[in-house]
Specification:
The chain is of the alpha+beta class. The chain contains 27 helices and 22 strands. This is ABC3 transporter permease protein domain-containing protein.
């Protein structure tokens, strides 16, 4: 009965203090919701590719900047090093898959047949031991097969790719939590590489193109690390990137570490995560949880006077201090459990939003396992201990006589609370400063001058057309009102380009190659430094960095390295995102009627819906219903900085929660502080202090905590954001306005939070305080 009475007493206390209860439970629930979502996300990110049975034996071969090699390197290494059991080469591309009158764009993945021997992926239909061994066999994903053959019976069907009719020999199950994205279609690397790569010599001259990810599977208990120096030396003898000193390092990365390795290894079919992003989100979630703990401590301390009276009565009735301390800790644990249950419900509701922002597929339900529930119980008990120990110590150490006299509240100095409130506002200002900096940088990147004109341009992919077909489509599109001009291209900044490596004057040269017709330079709006007026058919344009790397004078008219006359020189332009510095670039002429990758279409206005519909209609009519693939430059720019935008959005959400919890914390502190100072306020008013003077004194008392937090926050913001901004070629300055706006926002929130209570205290009748 005593336990039931104690529990009821706690419920009665919560009922009498509804604001205290609501703030505590709200703060805890929101914080735990973020923790649940981000713990689930973090666990999933660190578990990528952990399900493969051979994971300890699989490695990806990499150099210092890339993880792609020539198609015959795997064969050579397997023959030379007995530790290697097998290898898998990959290549990804986009093609159109056709059956009857149905045409669908497909993500194609070429692979060696040992793909299913190396990795633990499974087929919904088909035999993994037989697939990918000939040209006459295609694997389709379940979703793509349903779209292509809605009538079912997939293994009885045939699909046409690149003009080749291929029987469906298997259906892929989704790859799950892997670095590999489930492709629409999988084909044999050996049989299909020359056709989809667009070069018959890709395998015959198997060392020329370094475009293929290479995975090695070692024999059981084998160790290849000791052979890496020898492997490097061996490749230097015949493989051009190492022979010509374009690559200098060679390493193998375990399969389970590839996902969180170099972001340069990413592609459309291979995902690469960000360890920095994961750890940042998790750290901020822990800070939000810490905020909730601080709030609980502050709120509980603010209620310490009423709780102390209750505890004093219990002490007088014979209850020990130890028993009271334990009771308060149990109350804290119960409050945490209630908050956790609400947080789980909120996490389930917020899960779709979280998945959309981070472009992931977490499921909170995955946490409901026996081991996770055990960890959760231990964690919530520890959280209850952490939150309850300080309030319990403050309340139970009070002597009953002090509580009866009313001197207890004057003896409570709230040192811990002041430090904790200062810490809350320190983190809040840091989050505000970081969010402002990121938002300004992202906005600048989306509107940065890249060295060419991106306005009102479309990139239309036409890779499946020959030169005559492309010319016919170009003439057709030029008849559309709203289409100003069209350039035939093989390589466009922000989309794709070729590259060429070699040696010039005993040093390695790496050039980025862009090809376009006679309208290309003008249509793209490249800034000209020098125009030689050279209209030779093979005349090239070079950027400043290429001129410098090739050691050419400013007035050069011929490039000996490329054996071409120089049409002119242009300013450096950024052909990748702003984390990459300008590289040596060459713009080569693309002759009429020659095969091209794409069109760059200059529109007369800003992406008119009518014009886009007419382009789509003309393309479909010309190609017999083939799916159109076009993008705007704005779309690509937003895709390039999608990760940064997601990080900024999540940080903004955390900042709002931090602001809210900080405001609740300082509200609790203001409540307790004003209660403590009620007699002092009354005395000051009796001796002549005006309401305004009392109000200023009360508000300034809390402002000083924010000012102290601001002083510490400024160097923290500068350090964090200076490091973050350093990765970008173009970046905003860390202006004083960022720090000022972050500090003023926090100050305004603090003042607005405490102003109401301070105003009521300043305008109260001093007689009432003296009576109490």
């Amino acid at each position: 009965m005593k336990t039931i009475f104690d529990f009821r007493a706690f419920l009665n206390f919560l009922g009498r203090n509804k604001l205290y209860t609501a703030i505590n439970i709200f703060g805890f629930s929101i914080s735990l919701m973020f923790v649940i979502l981000l713990v689930t996300y973090t666990r999933q990110e660190y578990a990528v590719d952990q399900f493969h049975s051979n994971k300890e034996r699989i490695f990806r071969l990499c150099d210092e900047t890339d993880a792609c090699f020539a198609p015959l390197i795997g064969r050579d290494l397997k023959a030379r090093y007995p530790e290697i059991e097998t290898y898998v080469r990959l290549f990804e591309t986009d093609e159109v898959a056709t059956t009857g009158e149905r045409h669908l764009k497909a993500k194609i993945l070429l692979s060696d047949p040992d793909f299913f021997r190396m990795f633990s992926f499974r087929l919904a239909e088909g035999d993994t031991a037989q697939v990918l061994r000939s040209k006459n066999g295609a694997l389709l994903s379940e979703s793509f097969a349903r779209n292509l053959f809605p009538e079912g019976d997939y293994l009885d069907k045939t699909v046409t790719i690149k003009g080749e009719s291929v029987p469906v020999t298997g259906i892929l199950r989704p790859f799950g939590n892997s670095q590999f994205v489930t492709p629409d279609v999988m084909l044999s690397f050996e049989e299909w590489a020359p056709l989809v790569y667009g070069w018959d010599g890709v395998l015959k001259r198997g060392y020329a193109s370094a475009s293929f990810p290479l995975y090695l599977m070692l024999k059981p208990h084998a160790d290849l690390s000791a052979k890496m120096p020898d492997m490097l030396s061996h490749l230097k003898t015949y493989y051009w990137p190492y022979k010509d000193d374009h690559a200098r390092e060679l390493t193998i990365i375990p399969l389970t570490e590839v996902y969180l390795s170099n972001p340069l290894y990413a592609s459309e079919q291979i995902r690469i995560g960000s360890k920095t992003l994961i750890n940042t989100f998790f750290s901020v979630a822990m800070l939000i949880l810490l905020f909730a703990v601080i709030n609980y401590i502050n709120l509980s301390t603010a209620q310490s006077e009423s709780r102390a009276r209750e505890m004093a009565v219990r002490r007088l009735l014979g209850c020990s201090r130890k028993a009271l301390f334990t009771r308060l800790i149990v109350e804290s644990v119960l409050l945490c459990i209630l908050s956790l249950l609400i947080a789980l419900l909120l996490a389930g509701i917020a899960e779709p939003i979280f998945n959309r922002i981070l472009q992931t597929h977490i499921s909170v339900s995955n946490l409901f396992s026996a081991s996770n529930l055990g960890i959760g119980v231990v964690a919530i008990i520890l959280l209850g201990l952490l939150t309850g120990v300080i309030p319990a110590s403050v309340i139970t150490r009070a002597r009953p006589i002090d509580v009866v006299r009313g001197s207890f509240r004057h003896k409570t100095k709230m040192v811990y609370n002041k430090i904790l409130i200062g810490f809350q506002y320190l983190i809040t200002i840091v989050l505000l400063g970081c969010t402002l900096t990121m938002s300004r940088q992202i906005d600048m990147m989306l509107h940065a001058d890249l060295g060419f004109d991106t306005a009102n341009k479309l990139y239309l992919s036409i890779q499946n057309m020959n030169g005559y077909q492309a010319s016919g489509l170009k003439n057709r599109l030029l008849q559309i009102a709203g289409v100003e001009n069209i350039s035939r291209v093989r390589g466009v900044p922000m989309f794709a380009n070729n590259n060429s490596s070699g040696v010039w004057h005993n040093k390695p040269i790496h050039l980025e190659i862009f090809e376009g017709d006679s309208t290309y330079v003008g249509l793209m709006g490249f800034r000209k430094i020098q125009d030689n007026r050279n209209f030779a058919q093979n005349a090239i344009w070079l950027n400043r960095t290429a001129m410098r790397e090739l050691e050419l004078p400013d007035n050069a008219s011929y490039c000996e390295y490329l054996k071409s006359p120089i049409a002119g020189v242009i300013y450096d332009f950024l052909y990748q995102d702003l984390t990459h510095h300008p590289q040596p670039c060459v713009i080569k002429p693309l002759p009429e009627k020659e095969w091209c990758w794409a069109f760059v279409i200059q529109l007369t206005d800003e992406y008119s819906i009518t014009t886009l519909q007419k382009i789509k209609q003309a393309y479909n009519e010309y190609t017999g219903g083939m799916p159109i693939d076009y993008k705007t430059f704005d779309d690509v720019m937003h895709q390039q900085y999608a990760a940064q935008q997601r990080m900024s959005d999540i940080l903004f959400g955390f900042t709002l929660v931090a602001i809210l919890i900080s405001a609740l914390g300082i509200l609790a502190m203001a409540t307790y502080f004003i209660r403590q100072r009620s007699m002092e306020i009354a005395v000051r008013k009796v001796f002549g202090s005006t309401n305004r003077e009392v109000l200023q004194r009360l508000v300034l008392h809390f402002v000083r905590y924010v000012l102290a937090a601001f002083v510490i926050a400024v160097p923290v913001i500068w350090y964090l954001m200076h490091d973050w901004l350093s990765q970008y070629v173009l970046r905003i300055p860390l202006s004083w306005t960022i720090f000022a706006l972050a500090g003023l926002t926090a100050l305004a929130i603090a003042v607005a939070t405490v102003f109401g209570q301070s105003w009521r205290a300043a305008n109260s009748n001093p007689v009432d305080a003296i009576k109490r």
